[in-house]
């Protein structure tokens, strides 16, 4: 069973050397199953992951690859066992489209940590079907990986929240960001601009660390009470002052890791949410011992967290700073993200 009027076309990269020249191709979606939802795409955000994938920075991708995992649109078809959605619903799909549904993570609202998770693109389903992303006309996903979008939130606003927003919301919540806590956000970009807003929306005091002194104004507008330019010696006066740090910096050599660890209070945590291509800077274990600080990671978020995040975004007016481009300019958008030349997220508007 498959809807008759849906076209499956998308902008694919077929050569990592020419990663900024995606070409329009026809593709075969996964086989339609009982819990599947078909979504006609209206918008798709452009994530740093798209760049890491199409450039081969994270390893050779399965080519051709259609990137994009910040997808919003409308439901056009539902499988016979789908209960959450009906045709016409406004929905989104993030960075994951399937999992095993049976393991402990899947049964405890940690499905984003399922060892058999299927990513939205550059991935294969267990039956061999290829998952392609949202720089395309449509996406098919299991209903668990489809999120209802609140009516108050325009789809182009919701799109970047489904990866960038969730990637920072989940570790904020899991690591206790809230009233009485001081949270440091490192880097102001696609992830960072959401991290500042969600930390503030959760009730925490927010300190922004950035190597660009000209981002002071944006940091404060987004909700930071302090802005720290991470130039030589910035750590002076900040030792032991923070409960939690979310690091969104995507290039390892740009992360002053030892100094940032020093800004944590006893047992404070630094959570890496960006995934740079290269290794993190080396650290001496003395760095961890002096304040018992912890260094950790995080991977997107669960559906439960996605729904809470969208609700909080509506209640507290969290706003994505977006620059819209037609989908045919996906290559330009990818290049701008790679060159850090967007304030702060590109969203592609369907034009196929
Ligand atoms: Zn992403
Ligand atoms: Zn699982």
Automatic annotation (TrEMBL):
EC number, as in UniProt: 1.1.1.2
Necessary cofactors: Zn(2+)
Molecular function (GO) terms listed? alcohol dehydrogenase (NADP+) activity; zinc ion binding
**Catalytic activity, as annotated:** a primary alcohol + NADP(+) = an aldehyde + NADPH + H(+)
Query: What does UniProt give as the signal peptide span?
Result: none
Q: How does it assemble?
A: Homodimer.
**Protein name per the record:** alcohol dehydrogenase (NADP(+))
């Amino acid at each position: 069973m498959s809807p008759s009027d849906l076209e499956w076309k998308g902008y694919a990269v077929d050569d990592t050397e020419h990663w900024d020249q995606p070409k329009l191709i026809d593709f075969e979606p996964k086989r339609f199953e009982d819990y599947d939802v078909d979504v006609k795409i209206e918008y798709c955000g452009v994530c740093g992951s798209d760049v890491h994938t199409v450039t081969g920075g994270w390893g050779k991708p399965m080519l051709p690859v259609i990137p994009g995992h910040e997808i919003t649109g409308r439901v056009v078809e539902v499988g016979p066992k789908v209960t959450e959605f009906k045709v016409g619903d406004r929905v989104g799909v993030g960075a994951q489209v399937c999992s095993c549904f049976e393991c402990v993570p899947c049964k405890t609202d940690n499905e984003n940590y399922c060892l058999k998770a299927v990513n939205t693109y550059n991935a294969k389903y267990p039956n061999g079907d290829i998952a392609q992303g949202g720089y395309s006309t449509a996406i098919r996903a299991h209903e668990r990986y489809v999120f209802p979008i609140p009516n108050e939130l325009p789809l182009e606003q919701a799109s970047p929240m489904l990866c960038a927003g969730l990637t920072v919301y989940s570790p904020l919540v899991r690591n206790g960001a809230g009233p009485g806590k001081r949270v440091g956000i490192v880097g102001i970009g696609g992830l960072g601009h959401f991290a500042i807003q969600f930390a503030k929306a959760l009730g925490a005091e927010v300190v922004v660390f950035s190597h660009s002194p000209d981002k002071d104004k944006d940091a404060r507008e987004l909700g930071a009470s302090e802005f720290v330019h991470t130039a030589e010696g910035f750590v002076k006066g900040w030792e032991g002052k923070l409960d939690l740090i979310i690091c969104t910096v995507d290039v390892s050599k740009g992360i002053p890791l030892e100094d940032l660890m020093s800004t944590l209070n006893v047992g404070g945590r630094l959570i890496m949410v960006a995934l740079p291509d290269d290794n993190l800077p080396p650290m001496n274990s003395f760095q961890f011992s002096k304040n018992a600080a912890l260094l950790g990671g995080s991977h997107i978020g669960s559906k439960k967290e996605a729904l809470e995040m969208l609700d909080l975004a509506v209640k507290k007016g969290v706003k994505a700073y977006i620059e819209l481009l037609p989908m045919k300019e996906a290559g330009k958008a990818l290049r701008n993200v790679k060159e850090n030349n967007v304030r702060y997220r590109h969203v592609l508007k369907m034009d196929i």
